[in-house]
Amino acid sequence: MKVFVMSVAAAVALAVAASFLLNENQKFAYEAFATSGARVSEPGTNLVGPKWNGETTEPSGKKHGA
Amino acid sequence: MRRGMTLFRTIVVATALAAAVPAMAQQTRDGLNPTGQNPTADSVTEEFLFKQEPKIGGRVSIPDGKSANLIQPQGREYQAFREGWLPWIGGIAVLGILGLLTAFFLLRGRIALDDPGPDTGKKILRFNSFERFAHWMTATCFIILSLSGLNYIFGKRLLMPLIGPEAFGTLSQWAKYSHLYLAWPFMLGIAIMLIVWLKDNIPEKLDWEWIKAGGGLIGRGHPHAKRFNAGQKVVFWMVVGFGAAMSVTGVVMMFPFAVTDINGMQVTQVIHSLIGVVFIAGILAHIYIGSIGMEGAYDAMGSGKVDLGWAKSHHDLWVEEQQAKNASVAQLGTRQVPAE
């Protein structure tokens, strides 16, 4: 039982470590595919804003089109 | 007089239009030009474009060149596999092996320990702590990977109607995390087991004799076997082979488009999913024979120690090896003085 518990703990620990390492090497699409000429919206936003008036608020709190 | 001329002109124009419109409408319906020529005869067709390349694309300004992909017919074949064939293949593989194991259990029953003999009750170490650690780390990861993998195929069909889309969405998100992250300790476990058990799993002539004798599953006798019999060697090489294939294809999918293009990604997923369902079926058989299928078998990976009587029945040559080794160690201890 002790060996089993240790093996599960090791699996979880390695999985957590893997999650950190993998996240270090990943970019969101809005980061990876944006250029100086093309802005890709962050998830949860669109280019016209929730009221369709051109006022958008990115999740970071940064305002566009105000 | 002037009014009369105007009326006459109007009648002439109306008559001309009445004669022309049906003819034009007819030509439009036929898609024919009044001149008899097809105006789009020289334009590029889908068929022509597919002769140049297997997909049709355009140009985009963002750095993601894949977004320029407009039509890719191979994707339809992949979709037909993913949404049509795969659930059937997966269902038949998993339910099929469960049905076979149930039928085998009902026919053969649990393979019992032999009648008590002089060695019954004595214990022999079959797997040390490190071996059991590697096995259970790989096994627990495999179970989560299997369930989360099956969720990719069956989740939206079987689970979502039961628990609703919101709960299913949350569950699937966590299942995906576990699939991606537990893959790493799983791969490590496979590598450790390969190193630790390779020498005992090299196929040899004895394995063929074991197979010919039915491996003890059929009949009452137990053919000779060393540390691992032919059946266990099959499981070992299945785990190593399928584990390696799942690892390679899994890592390719974990870093999308880093190694291959969209076709390659789809082919990779086909391989990953097909091997995955066969792997699950194989491991279900392994779990069966290591637990309810055979009395005394679980102790090997449970406590690490098995009944000596059981070991002599199932792995007689290995017990002889171990006892000879122990005897020589004991001899060394009594007759030789270790170097200082």
Please provide a written account of the structure.
The complex is a heterodimer of chains A (66) and B (340). Chain A has two domains: 1-27; 34-66, no CATH class. In chain A, 41% of the residues lie in helices and 6% in strands. Chain A has helices at 2-24, 29-32; strands at 56-57, 63-64. In chain A, strands 1-2 form a two-stranded antiparallel sheet. The termini of chain A are far apart. Chain B has a domain at 116-327: Fumarate Reductase Cytochrome B subunit, CATH 1.20.950. Chain B is 69% helix and 3% strand. In chain B, the strands form two sheets. A two-stranded antiparallel sheet of chain B has the order 1-2. Chain B has a two-stranded antiparallel ribbon with strand order 3-4. Chain B is elongated and about 135 Å long.
Please give the oligomerization state of what you see: heterodimer
CATH class of the domain at 116-327 in chain B: Mainly Alpha
Largest interface: A-B, 22 and 27 residues
Spans of chain B of 5+ residues with little confidence (pLDDT < 50)? 334-340
**Total number of helical segments of chain A?**
2
Order of helices and strands of chain A: HHEE
**Strand content of the residues of chain B, in percent?**
under 5%
Biggest sheet architecture of chain B: 2 strands, antiparallel
Any idea what the shape of chain A is? Answer: elongated
Helix fraction bin of chain A = 40-55%
Could you state the CATH homologous superfamily of the domain at 116-327 in chain B? Transmembrane di-heme cytochromes, Chain C
Category by helix and strand content of chain A? mainly alpha
Kindly, what is the distance between the CA atoms of the first and last residues of chain B, rounded to a whole number of angstroms?
Answer: 142 Å
In round numbers, the mean pLDDT of chain B is 86
Q: Total strand count of chain B, please?
A: 4
- Most strands sheet of chain A: 2 strands, antiparallel
What count of structural domains of chain A? 2
Helix fraction bin of chain B: 55-70%
* Architecture per CATH nomenclature, i.e. the level-2 architecture of the domain at 116-327 in chain B: Up-down Bundle
Mean pLDDT of chain A: 78
